[in-house]
Amino acid sequence: MIYITGDCHGEFRRFNTRIFPEQNGMTKDDYVIICGDFGGVWNKDEESKMETHNLDWLEDKPFTTLFVSGNHENFDRLNKYPIEKWHGGKIQRIRPSVIHLMRGQIFELEGKKIFSFGGASSHDIDGGILELDDPNFKRKKKNLDKGWRPYRINHLSWWKEELPSEEEMEEGRRNLMDNNHKVDFIVTHCAASSTAALLGQGLYKPDLLTDYLEEIRQTVKFKKWFFGHYHDNRNVNAEEILLWEQMIRIS
Ligand SMILES: [Fe+2]
Question: pLDDT tens digit string along 177-212?
């Protein structure tokens, strides 16, 4: 079985047995995929007690948890986990069965090919990105707090790696080419530019990642594309599905 869901932001209540009783029939060879903003690796420098508890709790679940990155992940920490090959693509293990699916990879699970590409631009940064070592940090923060303007702090609540590198995008193109531009499922955090435009009616500006995903949307044959980021549950069309707390079975 493969289930899929949207942003968690470090809050995994939806996976408890009462809300998700289907897990009773699952084993570690069954999967739950999170479309980014996993949030289980978020705290500065090292696992907080809460994180250790949550990650161990997920590890104790009968299924294997998979996630692509969102924009709300601590990339300083995430990037330190060793990389290994798993089911055809590159992963990082946060726990033996809590696994980060890296960008631009194609995994084969239950006979289905899944292309993964995490990341997204943060929307909630209207007030800008503050630097902790800025001598005016306190003053700037106070002004933003006073004006209720959303901002983020570099290496504390924002990381430039929320957007992919050229290498990650190239690796994705190469892997898709090796698979004749055909997969069963695409799992991302944000949507392709045209899909995001439809969703936000002009609210969401295109960026290098949504443009890259647009290229993939135009050139790759896929059955379904699942994404999160926009905090809603909605079928944009027959193929592209926005998920938040909803969990659906895809295999
Ligand atoms: Fe989110």
Answer: 999 999 999 999 999 999 999 999 888 999 999 999
* Residue 187 falls inside a structural domain: yes
Mean pLDDT calculated for residue range 109-115? 98
Helix orientation angle between 193-200 and 208-219, rounded to the nearest 10 degrees: 110
Q: Tell me, in angstroms, the distance from the centre of ligand 1 to residue 247's CA.
A: 16
Is residue 184 included in any domain, yes or no?
Answer: yes
Q: Is 80 exposed, middle or buried (0-12, 13-18, 19+ CB in 10 A)?
A: exposed
The answer to whether the CB of 75 falls within 8 A of the CB of 162 is yes
Distance 96 CA to ligand 1 centre (A): 25
Domain count for the chain, please give it. Answer: 2
CA of 230 to the centre of ligand 1 (A): 7
37 and 99 inside one domain: yes
| Distance from residue 140's CA to the centre of ligand 1 (Å) | 25
* Average pLDDT value for residue range 157-176: 98
Cα of 71 vs centre of ligand 1, distance in Å, is: 7
Same domain, 83 and 194: yes
